[in-house]
Amino acid sequence: MQNQNKSSQDSGQQNSTKDIGEQFRGEIEELITQLQSALADTIRGTDDRPALAAGAEEVLALLDEPLPESGCGAKQSIEKLLELNMKAAANVGGPKCFHFILGGSTPASMAADMLATAFETITYTWVVSPVGVQMELQALNWLKQMFGLNPSMSGVMVTGATMANFVGLASARQWWGEQLGFDVSEDGMAGKPQMPVLTSGFVHASTLKVLALLGVGRSSVQRFCRDDVGRLDLEAMQKALEDLDGEPAVIIVNAGEVNAGEFDPVSDMIQLARKHNVWVHVDGAFGLFARVSPRIQHFVEGVEQADSVTVDGHKWLNVPYDSGYAFVRDIGLMARSFRYSADYLPSENEPHPTPGAIGPDSSRRARGFAVWATLKAYGRQGHRRIVEHCLDIAQHFSAQVRNNEHLEAMADVPLHIVAFRFNPGGLSEQELDSLNQQLGEAVLADGRFLAGTSRIGERTVFRPAFSNWRTRNEDVEEFADVVVELGKALI
Ligand SMILES: Cc1ncc(COP(=O)(O)O)c(C=O)c1O
Q: Which residue has its alpha carbon closest to ligand 1 atom 10?
């Protein structure tokens, strides 16, 4: 401890005698050497680090210290950061993380993302990064080709599917206002009618968050469900649209729901919408990847007719966080929704694009580097292989569940999510719910795997989602064993 204090002080004193530029240039040389081994160890160790390090809370309590006066210097601060990550990180990019719907990173995308930081690329507008802006546009074009979207759609990269939903639904709101003869972005919504938003029970929490931000309101969403799972009641939706009698409305199509990987009937909903005055927004955060594999393409048939589409890259594209994409059929609606103008900023009429003026964030990092690099490196077929690898892993895990007398399948497995529960037999439904909730906590406390629970209807289920190229058959076999081992310990 004494030594550490001494070296912190030394470093501070040394720093103060040097010009800051001179000091940092020297540090960079030192850091490059340090990073050569640290990056290699970190990346190589991804398969082997625990999913959730034990004792993270105690280790992280050490972060609570007063602001350093002169600091310990870059080398020591990076050493500390590495140590904290070894002791207290969740290994979400590793092969044993099945929580929420996360992804991994392809080798090319990870390298490209690091270079985006090294080049300090900013993609607000062309002049501050011609390559960053153009790579984003090229990557978005490739994504449209890969997903078979309408080529005339415009796109923008954002932090994730939440913000992509924000872009899609802000554009929908702008369209809706214009249908009624006003400009929502200029005039606001005060005194205006409620924007009708229709969907199924599969609607994702992020969409509700976005509708709150857009002033439409979470509770305004009309869900048409035919069962307690949340599946769409198409006839009821049709009736509601007929009752609107030509008034503009928005339909949200949920292409991929999070508990079992089911889909709304995309094509039926779009066909219905086309008979009415409706904007169709498709949330395909992970489900749009069905488009990449002939095995599951049918789930998203017709999606090319949507008015706006959300997709996430940090899920099934396997590019580093954060990376999401919004596609909208009319760039004018995006520009009017997200107008960003001042005398010192580029005007809308410049020949070169300004992504910062058609999406929510103005200052933006170069998300296009990773997307461009992975599509360039592996192409359509490489990404189809990632998707199909995950489908195979899900089927392999589903077989483990079906063949294990203590596990029970709780839904079909159309995609890459397997809903199941621990069921030792002889317990009521309520007892099983409570046991599986406790088991969910036990799995996280154990740390060998990261996986979460949810509910399908009334029932508590585990819902591991397999979206990472790193996951192997033996990982999911071990997961089944661990769930049974921890489950047995609870009864
Ligand atoms: C269907 C769906 N939509 C939206 C989101 C929100 O995505 P993000 O966390 O990237 O903002 C998710 C996240 O899991 C999702 O599954």
A: 160
